[in-house]
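## Example record

The block below lists the input lines for one assembly entry, exactly as stored, with component labels intact.
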Amino acid sequence: MRDCPNVEMRERLPELLHGRLPGDVDASVRQHVAGCPDCAAELELLRRVRDGWTAPTVDIERIVAAIPPYAPAVQGAVTRARKAGSPPWLKIAAAIVLVAGLAGLWTMLRRASGPDVEPNIATRGVESGAPRVAPPVRSVAQTSVTQLSVGEPLSDLSDSDLRALAETVADLDAVPSTDVESLDPSFIDIEGDS
Amino acid sequence: MSERNRPGDDATDTALIAQWKAGDQRAASQLVARHASALARFAASSGARGDIDELVQDTFVRAFASLDGFRGESSFRTWLFIIERRLLLDRQRSAKRKPEGVELTDGVAATAFDPLDELVASEAQGRVRAAIGRLTPTQRGVFLLRVTEGLSYKEIATALESTEGAARVHYHNAMRSIKEFLDA
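Predicted structure tokens for the full assembly:
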């Protein structure tokens, strides 16, 4: 028994056998089979298998008796509840919590990534292990520089503050150097209570 | 008794299911009558032995118990095939026997096939029976679903939880094997 080279027709033989082809396709396949001994033989083989293949006996009465009457399943109610989703108030509460959490996180990140504020520029040079030096003659300058060091803009200063700052700058020569190596040890007040 | 699938059967099944849900127990009887033989044939071709009646009954009981989950994405009969196949595989696993179901990965030829003894005992039918008996369980399952039930490759793939391509390959391999045996 040979295979018909027309695969498309061969593929449709089982459907032809069971009458499942649309009318026009059914007619074309039947026409092909009428002129094709290979497909005719294969169709006959399929018919023999179908007609000869009897089902094992089953007791239909017993099967039907074992089937309980229909009862709308609780499972169906659960499924519907799941499909309905959460109540609206719960969704709103969840959204509020989410927004608050994100805002808090954003604030923390902003603080963590902000500029480190040096409280006193005058002490930066001695932070590398050297003893802290508190020069006795810089009270005015120290105040002004500290104000600048924390980032306050000059435009925020009053006229009197600006004048004081200008005078301080003019007197900067009187401020001792912060280079610890050039300091006379006798002037160093380690305890800072001079 | 049930017969093969025909166009329009799906609509009939849907109507019967609705009737059963409305309290008409006779609709259940008609559904069982329409599909019991197909399930028995499928069970036999899938390697069930001796307990086919019980397997078919359990399939229907489980199907009717979960009928709310049937959405009509496949035909009712195909859905029943899926349930029956899973039940059969569960039993084969629990019995710790080698699965003889219609898994699409085996390649072992069958050596015995009891339900085929019910084929008409003519010589021609005897040779066909022998040819089918030599198929692997997978080839046999696919071949018989296609030939005796008239399922499309897509429906076979759904029933066996496989692919259309795999079903097509197994069908053609089965057909070639049968022809070679009959020509020998």
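Chain B touches chain A through 54 residues (CB under 8 Å). Chain B has a mean pLDDT of 82.
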